[in-house]
């Protein structure tokens, strides 16, 4: 059986990466992750990402290419991350379901208290943000 996929969005603007801080469950509360969530039956991965960003952040995004490799999650799921851009470049994402959202500079990414799966993606996220910075 194919593993079920949790999609994550690496949204970059002006050389900064957007992350969100979980409010629950207790063991994840206060830790940071990328916007996203489970792909539902019959939904494409980009559709799931657009839906989750609208639900969680109140913004529309354009989905770009893959970032990093799949990261295994507990329960046989995988975390699959895509680059993304705000459809409206001056929109302000807000924490609808989360404790907070924040834009991080590349230099801050290693010290963020990421969920374990997201921690594995920090090198790929650094590459992405640095490339955006110099371009
Ligand atoms: N969205 C998201 N989930 C992540 C990341 N890293 C990570 O380990 N996860 C885990 C946390 C959750 O166990 C699972 C995603 O579930 P979720 O609660 O965000 O997604 P969902 O909207 O489909 O869930 P549900 O509450 O509707 O059941 O993946 C990440 O960067 N983004």
TrEMBL record:
One biological process term in Gene Ontology: DNA replication
Keywords: DNA damage, DNA repair, DNA replication, Hydrolase, Magnesium, Metal-binding, Mutator protein
GO molecular function: 8-oxo-7,8-dihydrodeoxyguanosine triphosphate pyrophosphatase activity; 8-oxo-7,8-dihydroguanosine triphosphate pyrophosphatase activity; 8-oxo-dGDP phosphatase activity; 8-oxo-GDP phosphatase activity; metal ion binding
Broad enzyme group: hydrolase
InterPro entries (UniProt xref): MutT-like (IPR047127), Nudix_hydrolase (IPR020476), NUDIX_hydrolase-like_dom_sf (IPR015797), NUDIX_hydrolase_dom (IPR000086)
One protein family per Pfam: NUDIX
Domain Nudix hydrolase: 2-127
Range of residues in the leader sequence: none
EC number: 3.6.1.55
Reaction equation(s) it catalyzes: 8-oxo-dGTP + H2O = 8-oxo-dGMP + diphosphate + H(+)
Cofactor(s) this protein cannot do without: Mg(2+)
SUPFAM superfamilies according to UniProt: Nudix
Similarity comment: Belongs to the Nudix hydrolase family.
Protein name per the record: 8-oxo-dGTP diphosphatase
Protein species of origin: Prauserella shujinwangii
């Amino acid at each position: 059986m194919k593993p079920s996929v949790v999609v994550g969005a690496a949204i970059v603007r002006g050389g900064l990466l957007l992350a969100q801080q979980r409010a629950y469950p207790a063991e994840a509360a206060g830790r940071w992750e990328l916007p996203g969530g489970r792909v539902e039956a019959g939904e494409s991965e980009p559709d799931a990402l657009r839906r989750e960003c609208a639900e969680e952040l109140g913004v529309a995004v354009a989905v770009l290419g893959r970032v990093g490799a799949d990261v295994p999650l507990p329960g046989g799921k995988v975390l699959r991350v895509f680059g993304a851009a705000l459809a409206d470049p001056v929109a302000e994402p807000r924490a609808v379901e989360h404790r907070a959202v924040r834009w991080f500079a590349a230099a801050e990414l290693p010290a963020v208290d990421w969920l374990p799966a997201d921690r594995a993606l920090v090198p790929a996220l650094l590459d992405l943000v640095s490339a955006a910075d110099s371009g």
